[in-house]
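PROTEIN DATA CARD
Card holder: Glucose-6-phosphate isomerase
Chain length: 532
Origin: Paracoccus hibiscisoli
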Amino acid sequence: MTELWTRLQDHRKAQGSARIEDLFDADRATAFRVQADGLTFDYSKTMIDAGARDLLLQLAAPVAARRDAMFAGDRINETEGRAVLHTALRNLQGNVTVDGQDVMPAVRDTHARMSAFAASIRDGSIAGQGGRFTDVVNIGIGGSDLGPAMAVLALAPYHDGPRTHFVSNVDGADIADALKGLDPATTLVIVASKTFTTIETMTNAQTARDWMAKAVADPGAQFVALSSAKAKAGDFGIDEARVFGFEDWVGGRYSVWGPIGLSLMLAVGPQAFDQFLAGAAAMDAHFRDAPPAQNLPVMLALTGIWHHQICGYPTRAVLPYDNRLMRLPAYLQQLEMESNGKRVAMDGSDLSVVSGPVVWGEPGTNGQHAFYQLIHQGTMPVPCEFILAARGHEPDLAHHHILLAANCLAQSEALMRGRSLDEARALMAAKGLEGAELDRQARHRVFPGNRPSTTLLMEQLTPFALGQIVALYEHRVFVEGVILGINSFDQWGVELGKELALKVEPLLKGEDAPGHDPSTEALAALIRQMRG
Ligand code: F6P
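Structure generated from the sequence above:
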């Protein structure tokens, strides 16, 4: 651990029992926020004071060089020997090379092919064997599912294309429920898999093809592949013209900007999709150009480092006050935990500080009626990241939106302020309680307060704003990874699961499968017995 980390920890200790509320002077509400292209990140309701901010910014010193290396196409994913260039997918006029090779002509060509294809599906000039496509089923998992599934729901007001469905789980229930009621002759199936080997996706793709084959003469003609493994997509029977490829420098969880976003493009149209890209490109430009203290991804990341590595809070909650951002927490779980949930630094040494936090969340106000009890009165503080749009998409229901926004602000205020024992006692006294009973009841009604939260505020959840927000979180993960010394772009921890499932499968089929532990063998035997 470097001296800077120690100084930060000392700074935190020196804050003692100081309260967030007491940090507020005339300027704090505006001095502890960052703005970019209509987006505001307010971190004033945290214990980050000027001294902490200064030290945190020093911690971020290595970020600029690493960021420039990423945008320049250097192979910063060192454990896989790859460049990291998802940003190139949203910077179509840009100029990006990898090892001296201009990568942009291929990116532009694929984007143009996707746009033409999406337009033709949407206007019916490409139709299914039973007529115009009414439904699209995206089959993929992890980064090949979460991004488009999250974004299609988020941009529902812009949805004017075919109905879109997502299948990810190898549990047959997932695909059975998704296909129920669909007409194979007017359904387009997208097989989204960077590697085209992921067992869940390939199993679901085969099931979808069998389903399709029962109803149409040429099932392959109603399939599309989104993959880096074009030859494997061909082997599956998907025509080259229906394969949209991308390079190994686009990581799965960073891939919604290119072909993996096709289901989104089909749903909202190429123009709205381009607005989504434009929002992300604007965030990229801000990330590159804004000074660190005014840089949204840098300050969001430093707030995360402060809460997790310095204050020791083990989790963070993402709480969108926007029902259409329902899938954002799940999307961020992969983005953040698959990227920064690692115990070894880039150079192979053990991390000297803890790695990334557990990320979780649900839209407000639903969460308020479920887990906010723990957030307000549990023993462990949970830093909350509120997300809110000033306006909804339902002008006739503006009163709903005001109530929604009021709840969001009320929660962050209550978390910070809490309710003191004296206030709780006064409440109980007003109800006529006295003596020991008043004391007992009052203690249950105390809120310690001093619980940190941040608020990310946008004008409206448009395609542009969604692009900004997703790119913001991507860069936040990057900045935290650089500060921790982690490679945020590999995922060796997930690869193990892929191998192990294949080794356990024979056990469940009653085949010879040596090398398993007694508990696993006994459970497998029980499952075999229950299945009969
Ligand atoms: O879950 C692990 C992972 O490798 C993710 O990184 C990726 O998004 C997902 O599997 C799906 O992989 P593929 O797109 O190759 O099917």
